[in-house]
TrEMBL record:
The keyword DNA-binding applies. GO terms for molecular function: DNA-binding transcription factor activity; sequence-specific DNA binding. Keywords: DNA-binding, Transcription, Transcription regulation. PROSITE patterns: HTH_ARAC_FAMILY_1, HTH_ARAC_FAMILY_2. This is Helix-turn-helix transcriptional regulator.
Length: 267
């Protein structure tokens, strides 16, 4: 699905972001070379708003570590739209793992984290480094401490994590892969093996991953108005526009037409 407009500047965040309120600043910091196979990026969000506002994200199949105030938490994959209320002033620092790669820090099945936020286990993670990270005032210092903490915990040697990571990223980059049958042909695994590995390493099903990537791309197309609702539905393989609209709204919380109207009315 071709949605990009080369005349538009890149956005601060990717197509996963459905809405970013005024008064919110975001940033990303790339990982060093030794951590890049595991970490997609470090990220931060800062806000100062006079009234409560809502940020909405359609999550990728990735686990995050999130550090805010005095809390350090693991955030699993959120299957519906992730909504966060922002009020007053605040800062969040996070680590986005590449798909399946949180397994290098935690051997437990990823499905235990799906739709959940759990405290970081300080019996496993270096308590002193985590406390320093929470109190560090500047993003470069937070990033340096996060890198140190990751190097202490990360373990290699899992034979499935890297192939699953590469498969998911291949799906993300190739929109012609639309069905589980396509995924079976691409991966060489049986459907039953795919279901088991995705549950254990990602916490979601192959069908969920396929659907999420395509709905993210659809949301971007609609927001940029680079395609009509009917054309986007057809490119995603829906037999009719109404079926696509129902699916889209069940996940995003807004209809395709509402996404277009919100984009037109954005400042």
């Amino acid at each position: 699905m071709a949605c990009k407009n080369p005349t538009e500047p890149p956005r601060a965040l990717d197509r996963a972001v459905l809405s970013l309120p005024a008064g919110v600043r975001t940033g990303r910091i790339p990982p060093p070379d030794d951590l890049s196979p595991m970490i997609e990026h470090f990220w931060w969000v800062q806000w100062a708003t006079e009234r409560a506002q809502t940020s909405e994200v359609l999550s990728y199949p990735s686990v995050h570590l999130v550090f805010e105030d005095r809390r350090a938490e693991i955030v699993g994959i959120v299957r519906k739209k992730f909504t966060r209320r922002l009020e007053g002033e605040g800062t969040v620092f996070g680590i986005k793992f590449r798909p399946a790669m949180f397994r290098q820090c935690d051997r437990a099945p990823a499905c235990r984290l799906t739709d959940r936020t759990v405290p970081l286990d300080l019996a496993v993670w270096d308590r002193a480094l985590v406390v320093q990270l929470l109190h560090a005032p500047a993003m470069p210092e937070k990033t340096r401490l996060a890198e140190m903490a990751l190097r202490l915990v990360a373990r290699t040697g899992d034979r499935h994590a890297l192939p699953i990571r590469d498969l998911v990223e291949h799906v993300r980059a190739n929109p012609e892969i639309r069905t589980v049958a396509d995924l079976v042909r691409t991966s060489g695994w049986t459907e039953r093996t795919l279901q088991r590995l995705f549950r254990d390493y990602l916490g979601v099903s192959p069908k969920w991953v396929l659907r999420r990537f395509r709905l993210q791309e659809a949301a971007e197309c609609l927001a940029r108005e680079t395609g009509t609702i009917a054309s986007v539905a057809a490119e995603l393989g829906y037999c009719d526009q109404a079926h696509f609209a129902r699916d889209f709204k069940s996940v995003v919380g807004l209809s395709p037409r509402q996404i277009q109207e919100r984009a037109r009315n954005a400042p």
